[in-house]
Amino acid sequence: MRAQSRKSTTTALIVGLGLLAACGKSPEPVSVPARDVECMARAMYFESNRSSRDGMIAVGTVVMNRVHSDAFPNTICGVVGQANQFAPGVMSKPMNDRSAPLARATALAVLQGERHPKVTRAKFFHAAWYNANYNNMHYVVTAGGNAFYEKRRPALVTTPNPLPPLEGITPL
């Protein structure tokens, strides 16, 4: 029995060392369907006003939060194409200026796991200039021309007004 215990300990140690050695490596890119990249890029392009990478990552984080929520469709294109949720024409208007490549590259980054660190669980946003008079909006960040928020019971809202814009916190 003692030899078996030592063998298990040795095996666990080798596996643990292998995991530690892998910690310093960059994660391998994840393959994602081109349709998902295109739908995500469209949401980022039209919703962040093509203004910043941070804004695009924040929009992408909201899309992913919605995909993982039971309250929304469970696909990227289903979320982005949902009626009355994103900019009119988000699925059909052309993306033809200099920001389209950035939107596609940023979409790929989100689909491979990057998230905006301040968006956390937020599933909603509106234009930063818009004054929404609801008492259940807990704002978490303003980026790319949008104010991002979580819906909460009014007693749990601690940030009821949009925050000042914050840019330059997502890596390039």
Automatic annotation (TrEMBL):
Superkingdom to which the source organism belongs: Bacteria
Pfam family, any one: Hydrolase_2
InterPro entries referenced in this protein's UniProt entry, alphabetically: Cell_wall_hydrolase_SleB, SleB_dom1
Cell wall hydrolase SleB domain mapped to chain residues: 52-149
Record's protein name: Cell wall hydrolase SleB domain-containing protein
Organism: Sulfitobacter indolifex HEL-45
